[in-house]
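Problem: given the chain below (408 residues), write out its structure.
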Amino acid sequence: MTQLTQTGSSWPDLEARMRDMAQGDVKWRDGRTGMYVFNAGEDVERVKKAAYAMFSEENGLGPMAFPSLARMEREVVANALALLHAPEGATGAMTSGGTDSIVMAVKTARDFARANGQSGQGNLVTPDTAHPAFHKAAMMMDLEVRRVPTKDFLADVAAMEAACDANTIMLVGSAPCFPFGLIDPIEALSAAALRNDLWLHVDACVGGFLAPFVEMNGAALPIWDFRAPGVRSISSDLHKYGYCSKGASTLLFRDKAMKDHMVFDAGPWPMGRMLTPTLAGTRPGGAIAAAWAVLNYLGVEGYRAKQALVVQAREKIEAGVSKLGFRVLGRPQLGIVSFTHDEADCFAILRGMYKRGWMTASNVEPPSLHLMLSPKHAEVAEEYLRDLEASMKDSVGAAPMPAPGYAR
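Solution.
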């Protein structure tokens, strides 16, 4: 057991010790990770660190005490709504991350359904590629999750619609799904939601601040946002392809009447009522400030340039792995790519890449390698492909490797 020191240490001593502890961490600034970190360059890193430090003591719980944070949050949410083609009257809030946004979306849909007569145990109908955060939400709220197998790695709309009943509180689609980086057929899900008067949530935690700029750069993406009239809410992470500090996400609603069911009105207690937009009370001011600063630092043109590098990196990787005999799963259009091999042991290759300093992910079904790419990866794609080829050669004849586990 490590006990608190009797006397304090100087900052130079602590800084040196922390840097020493970090020696074994993945070298993400060198582009050596395809998960956990979204590396948009040193300039963006400087901006968000400075903004976070400037408001590190301020608390988003107190908008009257810190109107600066309230204003920054309103502007960040307004930026997100505009990017996602929200209609007049749409609204939203910042949360601490994608799981927080998804849990709050489920809570909102549940309370909305109950207010409109739903009774009994509610259920969510999701494709089997939907993020496990929906399962977490269901565990917390005693809801049933009906996971429907995908078709060609995309949501099977007909099967999902057939799985709905009077107690379905939410349909789910992803833009894109995390395992394969593919955008579900949101327009078809929207039509199903409208036919059955159901809440459709789009999990765009990965794509919300990426897809709009990829589309601006000329890609023909399917409709996935509020342009689909059945979409009632969207989760979109700032700390992923928004390149903001962790943890920061947005949860957006088609109208205020829907968002009203998001709010916690807790109490009474000796201090009266406590109203919060999320489960958390204290909300780090630094995360709000850093998000506002990065969005304004990059602007539309800055994001278009960064996201063009992401697509360029993905296209380089796709071409390179295809030459090595891998098959890309589906037709990714954003920043995630997964690829499998009919003969090679993907998990042995993954281990080889780890030994070469790469921290990347994998899928179990089907066994495949997984990359979530950042602008930095456009610089190191060739290096990655060389190490991938070497890891393939090392895997020949090696004992089969079990599937790894990750904290995602």
